[in-house]
Amino acid sequence: MVDTQIAERGVRNPAVLAAMRQVPREVFVGAGFEEFAYDDCALPIARGQTISQPYIVAAMADAARIGADARVLEIGAGSGYASAVLSRIAREVYAIERLAPLSETAAKHFRHLGYANIILKTGDGSLGWPEYAPFDAIIISAGGPKVPEPLKNQLKIGGVLVAPVGPASRQRLKSIIRTDEKGFEENDLGAVRFIELVLP
Fold this sequence. Notes:
The protein is of the alpha/beta class. The chain contains 6 helices and 9 strands, in the order ααββαβαβαββαβββ. It has helices at residues 2-6, 14-22, 54-63, 81-87, 100-113, 149-153; strands at residues 43-44, 50-51, 71-75, 92-97, 118-122, 135-140, 155-165, 172-178, 184-191. It has a 7-stranded mixed β-sheet with strand order 5-4-3-6-7-8-9. Strands 1-2 form a two-stranded antiparallel sheet. A hairpin with a 5-residue loop joins β1 (43-44) and β2. The longest helix has 14 residues, at 100-113. The chain is globular and about 45 Å long. It starts with a helix and ends in a 9-residue tail after the last strand.
């Protein structure tokens, strides 16, 4: 999976590739889909949600430029796969999932795998997690018409936020770099398709 679906498509960061090799994706997919865990596609999990395709998880982690000492926030943790991958790269991962059953399942997966550097809560991800801000990187694993301002404001200067932005039929993956207290630089990374981020 890593060689053919990820590295050959341009993700070269050794830390990202190592994390993708380390995390067992079959743990995080919906029951009955384990045999498809390493296919290049999104797969269903509980409550009508999905686990992103491996390449997208790797590409977002790569674009976020995460260092070994980084504090990372993930919005829309789902079953926990992307958070698990991020936890193999960064020092600390803070993950928010709005659906309690998914949060509970993700927490079980983290305990089972011994991934102790992930702090997870159930809540409204659009508000971020101000108690632990600022973050070196923020990854939003759900789409929306724009990035919620609270999330941008919780990014460190020099930090990177990666998110799908736009209507469901025309989402674009964006990387947003905070250049100073009020300034942001936006880059378009290509077309994607994510479930919608629920906003208040």
